[in-house]
# Entry
Amino acid sequence: MLEIQNLSIDYRGTLALHNVSFFVPAGQLVGIIGPNGAGKSTLVEAILNLVPVTQGVIRFKGISLKRQLLKTAYVPQRSYIDWDYPVTVWNVVMMAQTVQTGLFNKFSRQAKHLARTALERVGMYELRHRPIGELSGGQQQRVFLARALAKEAELLIFDEPFTAVDRKTEDIIFDVFQELRAAGKTLLVINHDLGDSLAIYDQLLLLNKRLIAQGTRHEVVTSDNLERAYGRGLTRVFA
Amino acid sequence: MLDWIIQPLSLTFMQRALMLGILLGILCAVVGSYMIVQQMGMLAHAISHSVMAGLPIAYVVGIALSFGALIAGVISALMLYLIESRSRVKTDAAMALILTSFVAIGVTLVSIIPGANRIDLLHVLFGNILGVTMKEVWWTLAVTVVAITLMRLFFKELLFYTFDPKGAQASGMPVHFYNASLIIAMTVTIVVCLPTVGALLVVALLVAPAVTAYLLVKELHQMMWVGSIIGSLSSVIGMYLSYYLDAPSGATIVLVAFCFFCLAFLFSPSEGLLVSFWRKHMRSRLSMPS
# Structure
């Protein structure tokens, strides 16, 4: 369903990704792992047309993804957001419907219903009038999850969603991921952790500038692959 | 007291100055609110000085000085964007370079172009709201109405873009268009403010009311409303003080705006410094065993 072919990205003369190719069928939850600077964020940013692609093809359902960005939802890294911005939880979630609603139009009843349902799903509807900056890290992440849900996207991309979240938020995110997968959505999740949390993914992509390995957790997290991605030190820790 | 208020109103130049001050208070708060949340304060500072390069060129070409200033401001913003995106040079270094170079261009051209020395650089630097014409008031009204209408029409898009630029771009929004539009709106506001407070103080008018409102409210549109009231009040109070103390009007307006900021910084109900101290003190007293 999501098809990446020979993707290469040069950023000001530095190679960020080289010749990455993979295929993800619909209804799969895919984890992207790799060391810092491996190009994980660059890969998802290229998929979302946020960085220029030097070479390669990105297709979703056989059509260039660039032409159907409305079918995608994106939850960026926490550090990209200014959490002191004067905006309420409700207005953050309504952003999901901004482009669909169109210029000069007010949000429809249907758009508001989607936002309400999404906020209720993540347990944040009661706090909808709160400024985003007054929430805990976990609550903020749930608001962004609600925004992704309210977009009714088919391809959902999360950049390190488990950073600085509490146990309750982690459980909600896991549950929502399972529901989305069951609904036939495609999910790409950048995961910093190499521990037991990898068990939730249908398949993993191990990156370090190139695609080192792709497959199930047992196929990807091997000492040989980890050594190729992280070097010898980490392999010893996991051995 | 009533006399103190009414007496300056009988003077035509004061009526014009007050009208212009109120309009600028509104315009600057609306545009300034976006500047604050986009952290574009230093960019505004660079543009406010860069506009000086356009004045002598406009004089030679024979177009309105304000139009020359606008073009120079936009070119300086474009050059900053180019340097930042196409090299390893960081934003602050690029801004310092562009700001000083454009001022140097302005100063040099004013002295070497025949006749351009008629441009009063001191007036450009410090402004004089008491000398504004009715034409300038009408222009400012037109710019304010257009700016507010556009900001209202594009409010939801600008909210999304300024809060989460990557998310907005990932949704297919033309983020470069919105970025350029905000820079142009800021440059136009700066140019409109030049005759009033001058290039040195214009950024204060853009920043102070909006940032004061930022400390008091919780949403962007409230920031614009409250900022507009603070901005207009600063202009009116500043003008009266300037009239009675015989002080420079631009500087007095900016100082009043700064006083409003200090009050909000100390007494804002949600995050004022003294209010926080007081709350902490009361909490520790309540938790002490009797």
In short: The longest helix of chain B spans residues 175-216. Chain B has one domain: 18-287. The CA atoms of residues 174 and 222 of chain B lie 26 Å apart. Chain B touches chain A at residues 37, 39, 88, 153-154, 156-157, 159-160, 162-164, 166-173, 214, 217-220, 222-223 (CB under 8 Å).
